[in-house]
Amino acid sequence: MTVVESEIIKGDWVAPEAGEVELGPYGQRWIAERKLQPRTRENYEDLFRLHIRPHLGGLALGAVKPATIRSWRSKLLDGGTSEPQAVKAYALLRAILNTAVKEDEIIRQNPCRIPGYDRYHTPERPVATVAQVFALADAMPARFSALVIVAAFSGLRWGELAALRRSDVDETTGTVRVPRKLAALRNRMEFGAPKSGASNRTVSLPAAARSALAAHLRDYVGERPDALVFTGDKGAVLRSGNWRRAVDWATALRTAGMPERFHFHDLRHTGNNLAAATGASTRELMHRMGHASMRAALIYQHATSERDREIAAGMDRRIAKAQPKPKKSTKTTNPTPPAKPTKATQKQATKKTTPTATPDGTPHATGTRMARKIDKC
Asked: Which of 149, 156, 168, 359 lies in disulfide reach of 160, CB 3.0 to 4.6 Å?
């Protein structure tokens, strides 16, 4: 057996080119060559520039080991990087090195295989009540009231709402198409395809959202089919940061009695919880939310005692509806009263219940284990 074969078996073998290819240029090329949404590309570039290249960029791919990854993560956290950012950087580095393993075959194993490094605890986001949604809508400037209501009851994302055009709204069927989104990039706003293929969908609106949207279209939206549904006072596209300042979001939250940490995106969270509470299936929730995987949909299907009672009540209604109705009798009959016991039947009953007796006259219960032992004596 050669030395190379031995190293391959033990998992220690490294391709010769692994000592020549540095992580910095390789990672930058990986991002440039990937088919990514513009916003995703910018996020990857920022993660690589800020958290990966300064620490690992000068290392050869073959020199990056699990111990290197552990030391790198510790430096990030000790240097003030938040855990969510560290997790995102780790996930990006793992994806880059997966390509080096599986496609380019430069390294044999991915060093990013440390349990727990790809997860972090996310506090549960607040959920608004229906009353709070309407209170928040009332606290908004009039032209943004419908934006809050539609966001809460449709489950659309901010970028999807900001990209809606009049032609996407079907007032007859009460539905909204989501064929595009608006992304805020570093130096510009850009319309593009939705987040994923599953995000390109048509969503049915409940009556409250349909009514609010119809009034908004009448009062604030031009007649052209390509007119944006939600815009600023001067017709400009919405940008989340500027919009929050323009509507004084913090004051509106206090006025509506909402938690201070409530984000606009939590309105989508509220709508998804409402949809799940109706008993929608996982597949139906995935379509409404615009998700390709079941993971997010399952989060909203956690059982609650209140929902369980609603399900039981719904079952009662279905059972009652399906039960056959009793047939009406055409004759009226009087039930026959039970016959009174005679002296003979009473005597016979008394005789049957009288316990048998032992030879010495002591009564005992026959049939039991103890009775059989006594009988054998």
From this structure: 156
**Active-site positions?**
157, 265, 268, 291, 300
pLDDT tens, position by position, 296-342: 666 665 544 455 666 677 777 777 887 777 666 655 555 555 555 55
Nearest to 197 by CA among 95, 286, 297: 286
> What tokens were used for 2?
């050669």
Residues shown for the chain: 377
Separation of alpha carbons 363 and 244, rounded Å:
93
pLDDT tens for 163-220 read: 999 999 999 999 999 999 999 888 889 999 887 888 899 999 999 999 999 999 999 9
Contact status, residue 23 vs residue 57, Cβ threshold 8 Å: yes
Q: Is 119 left (phi over 0), alpha (psi -120 to 50) or beta?
A: beta
Give pLDDT tens digits for 169-184.
999 999 999 999 999 8
- Could you tell me how far CA 119 lies from the centroid of its own chain? 16
Distance linking the first and last C-alpha atoms of the chain? 87
Torsion-angle region of 108 (φ positive above 0: left; ψ -120 to 50: alpha; else: beta): alpha
Alpha-carbon distance of 299 to 296, in angstroms, equals 5
| Close Cβ partners of 203 (under 8 Å, ≥ 6 residues apart) | 154, 155, 156, 175, 176, 178, 288
What is the pLDDT, as a whole number, of residue 5? 52
For 186-190, the CB contacts below 8 A with 24+ separation are 186/42, 189/237, 189/239, 190/38
Contacts of 265 (CB under 8 A, 6+ apart): 125, 157, 158
